[in-house]
Amino acid sequence: MSCSIDWPEPIVRVQSLSDSGTPTIPDCYVKPPQDRPVVNSSSNHHDTDVNIPLIDLGVLTSGDDNTTLRATTIAQISEACREWGFFQVVNHGVSPHLMDRARDIWRDFFHLPMEEKQVYANSPKTYEGYGSRLGVQKGAILDWSDYYFLHFLPCSLKDHNKWPALPAPLREVIDEYADHLVKLSGRLMKVLSINLGLGEEYLQNAFGGNNIGACLRVNFYPKCPQPDMTLGLSSHSDPGGMTILLPDSHVAGLQVRKNDQWITVKPAPHAFIVNMGDQIQMFRLSIWNGNAWPGFINHWAHGGVMVLMAL
């Protein structure tokens, strides 16, 4: 029995639809009413000040031996994981300049002529490359976004030939950026291990040690003529261990669900958003034998560029 490794329908780039000036979106992007973007109503105006926790990682990245401050930071992360599953981090060890370069260079890629991007068109065999859909179900309702997916770790999967050659500095910038995020994720894995009552290296080793997997996905959300009818990224929980998100600096589109309410995340300047994945949740349940964390579901409503590293 053979397995299909091709898309079930012709691929249409969302950016092309947006640039065409169409006043309506095709039916394949129209979400069912219950799945459409949630906008805070006047009755919920008090929720607009609610945001995911913001945590300063300075004591973890500077080598400061202040044990009290370190313990406080570790406790803040523990509480954020229990209550939200999401938190923002500042003083994380990645320079604002590098963060801006990474986001801007991907934005430049998505604004290249279509024929230059199509060189990297992906397939459902690996998804690596330039894409506009996930899954091979015919007639599926799609998200209003294009993306680029690539492997960074383990080194055996990393292939610069599958990374865009244009804009010219992209490969160099993303190598440096991803290196820093791997270091950041390592620090966070140690904190999570401590919060689980385990040795500092437990989660890192559980996810592969020196052969840990890390991939980069960049989502591009073109302007939409009917933003109330669709989503840039459908509601989901992340299946891996941890996702570190670099949100768009101008458009707030990420929403997370807490207590059955959708809350729009307000990114702090040059902060990363950290999302605990399903596999970390499973470790917690197996070790603590406790109740499940809240439903860490998120979606992206509209607008901009978002750079994600998942482990």
Radius of gyration: 20 Å
Spans where pLDDT lies below 50 across 5 or more residues = 41-46, 288-297
How far is the first residue's CA from the last residue's CA? 32 Å
Question: Reading side by side through the largest sheet, how are the strands ordered?
Answer: 1-2-10-7-12-5-4-3
The name of the CATH superfamily reads B-lactam Antibiotic, Isopenicillin N Synthase, Chain
Q: Strand-and-helix sequence, N→C? A: HEHHEHHEEHHEEEEEEHEE
Which strand-content bin applies to the residues?
15-25%
> What's the number of helices?
8
Inertia-based shape: globular
What fold name goes in the CATH topology slot?
Answer: Jelly Rolls
CATH architecture: Sandwich
User: Helical residue percent?
Assistant: 25-40%
Descriptors:
4-stranded antiparallel sheet, alpha+beta, Jelly Rolls, 8-stranded mixed sheet, 29% helix, 8 helices, 311 residues
Question: Overview of this structure, please?
Answer:
Belongs to the iron/ascorbate-dependent oxidoreductase family. InterPro entries: DIOX_N, IPNS-like_FE2OG_OXY, IPNS-like_sf, Oxoglu/Fe-dep_dioxygenase_dom, Plant_2OG-oxidoreductases. 29% of the residues lie in helices and 19% in strands. With 311 residues, it is of the alpha+beta class. It has one domain: Sandwich (Jelly Rolls). The chain has an eight-stranded mixed β-sheet with strand order 1-2-10-7-12-5-4-3. A hairpin with a 2-residue loop joins strand 8 and strand 9 (261-264). Helix 4 (96-110) packs across helix 6. The chain is globular and about 60 Å long. Mean pLDDT is 86; it is low at 41-46 and 288-297.
